């Protein structure tokens, strides 16, 4: 039998089933097992109560994490070739019949008027319960006191089966009542709502008043409209991060990546997704700038040959970066000549030679030719303005 339960209740349910499993083992029945599936998202109706008219009405659908539990509960009514297929409670007003396996439902009527007779001890004395036991082709009615003696199945074992089923049925019903406290949210919806909110008010930290997170929550609750533009942007950002998964190295984005991969998330992760659009748009911008730079410098060619003394024009020059090494600080200058060729100069001097805007040309020795990020660079040394 398969039951669906709220994922948030998984621990409780497993605890209960494990304890019943242990108890069943004491009655010599270890065939009762259960397994829990991975969590998945289920859309369920959420009901509200109209207190004036005293009726329940469906408010909306909500998404929750659920998992399936597969139980071999019928193992509890089987032993060897024997199987208890029904329980008959002999009440004064008539029999109450419980069929254990749906495939035997057709036999219901035949049990409805059975007297409390036991075919094992062949007596008819007053009994509350009897059981119908199948052994290959033979079907017999057995009193509860004789059941174990006849087929090895303890009545207690049957009671556990009933307990398990009613417990699971309760849990299944509880999905809609506990559900509202265990909502899950679609990642693309939250990202789209965050984009919408940031567009209106800019990003506002979670500790500030009317934070982006608070506003996104509000929008979810009110089921506010989301513009097509924001939806498209959300898809673009999500796809971007999934595609560039291997280039991510900051911890915030790595967390976002794991959250986004889940597709549906718990409320506690909404904050991450509210900042995500800001972070990812920065990433995209940086990449665009780099591509632009590559594009601009794609015309660059090598100048001269290694160790050759060269003279070149200076269209622009700038200090690209500096770093501290064994010999002290090294400054890295990038110079572009009038033919769009890129020259790079590593020097220990914070050099005014290349800072002056009046420089029209320089001379230097070629140290090496180097391809960097697809750009042909001529690395020079001993550069001087002329
Ligand atoms: Zn008997």
Provide structural commentary.
- With 386 residues, the protein is of the alpha+beta class.
- It folds into four domains: 2-74 and 174-179, no CATH class; 78-152, no CATH class; 186-295, no CATH class; 309-385, OB fold (Dihydrolipoamide Acetyltransferase, E2P), CATH 2.40.50.
- 34% of the residues lie in helices and 33% in strands.
- The chain has nine helices and 17 strands.
- It has helices spanning 10-26, 108-112, 147-151, 155-179, 187-201, 212-221, 228-243, 251-261, 270-296, and strands spanning 2-6, 34-36, 40-50, 55-71, 78-79, 82-91, 94-99, 129-135, 138-143, 184-186, 264-266, 309-313, 316-325, 328-336, 342-347, 361-372, 375-385.
- The strands form four sheets. It has a six-stranded mixed beta sheet, with no helix packed on it. Strands 5, 6, 7, 8 and 9 form a five-stranded antiparallel beta sheet that branches.
- A hairpin with a 2-residue loop joins strand 6 (82-91) and strand 7 (94-99).
- Helix 5 (187-201) crosses helix 6, helix 5 (187-201) packs across helix 7 and helix 7 (228-243) crosses helix 9.
- The radius of gyration is 38 Å and the shape is elongated.
- It starts with a strand and ends with a strand.
- The relative contact order is 0.09.
- It binds zinc ion.
- Zinc ion (ZN) binds next to loops.
From N to C, what is the helix and strand string? EHEEEEEEHEEHHEHHHHEHEEEEEE
| Low-confidence regions | none
The number of E-state strands comes to 17
Largest sheet: 6 strands, mixed
Q: Number of DSSP helices? A: 9
Portion in helices: 25-40%
The SS-based structural class is alpha+beta
Mean pLDDT across all residues, rounded?
89
Tell me the β content. Answer: 25-35%
What compounds are bound to the protein?
zinc ion
Total number of domains: 4
State the separation between the terminal residues, measured CA to CA: 89 Å
| Order of strands, widest sheet | 12-16-17-15-14-13
Outline: elongated
Radius of gyration: 38 Å
């Amino acid at each position: 039998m398969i039951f669906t339960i709220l994922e948030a209740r998984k621990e409780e349910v497993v605890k209960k089933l494990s304890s019943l499993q242990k108890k069943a083992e004491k009655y010599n029945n270890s065939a009762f097992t259960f397994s829990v599936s991975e969590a998945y998202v289920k859309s369920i109706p959420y009901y509200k109560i109209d207190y004036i008219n005293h009726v329940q009405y469906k408010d909306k659908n909500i998404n929750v994490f659920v998992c399936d539990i597969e139980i071999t509960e019928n193992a509890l009514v089987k032993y060897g070739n024997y199987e208890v297929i029904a329980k008959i409670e002999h009440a004064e007003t008539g029999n109450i019949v419980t069929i254990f396996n749906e495939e035997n439902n057709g036999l219901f009527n035949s049990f409805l008027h059975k007297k409390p007779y036991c075919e094992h001890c062949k007596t008819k004395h007053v009994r509350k319960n009897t059981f119908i036991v199948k052994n290959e082709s033979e079907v017999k009615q057995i009193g509860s006191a004789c059941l174990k003696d006849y087929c090895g199945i303890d009545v207690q074992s049957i009671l556990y089966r009933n307990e398990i089923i009613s417990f699971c049925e309760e849990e299944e019903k509880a999905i809609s009542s506990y559900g509202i406290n265990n909502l899950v949210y679609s990642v693309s919806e939250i990202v789209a709502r965050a984009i919408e909110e940031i567009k209106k008010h800019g990003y506002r930290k979670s500790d500030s008043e009317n934070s982006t997170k608070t506003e996104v929550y509000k929008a979810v609750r009110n089921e506010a409209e989301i513009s097509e533009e924001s939806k498209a942007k959300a898809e673009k950002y999500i796809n971007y991060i999934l595609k560039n998964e291997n280039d991510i190295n900051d911890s915030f984005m790595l967390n976002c990546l794991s959250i986004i991969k889940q597709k549906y998330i718990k409320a506690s992760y909404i904050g991450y997704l509210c900042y995500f659009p800001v972070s990812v748009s920065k990433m995209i911008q940086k990449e665009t700038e780099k591509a632009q730079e590559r594009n601009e410098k794609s015309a660059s060619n090598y100048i001269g040959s290694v160790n050759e003394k060269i003279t070149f024009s200076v269209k622009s020059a700038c200090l690209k970066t500096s770093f501290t090494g064994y010999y002290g600080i090294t400054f890295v200058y990038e110079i572009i000549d009038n033919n769009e060729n890129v020259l790079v100069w590593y020097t220990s001097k914070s050099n005014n030679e290349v800072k002056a805007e009046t420089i029209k040309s320089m001379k230097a020795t070629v140290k090496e030719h180097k391809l960097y990020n697809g750009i042909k660079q001529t690395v020079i040394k001993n550069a001087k303005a002329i």
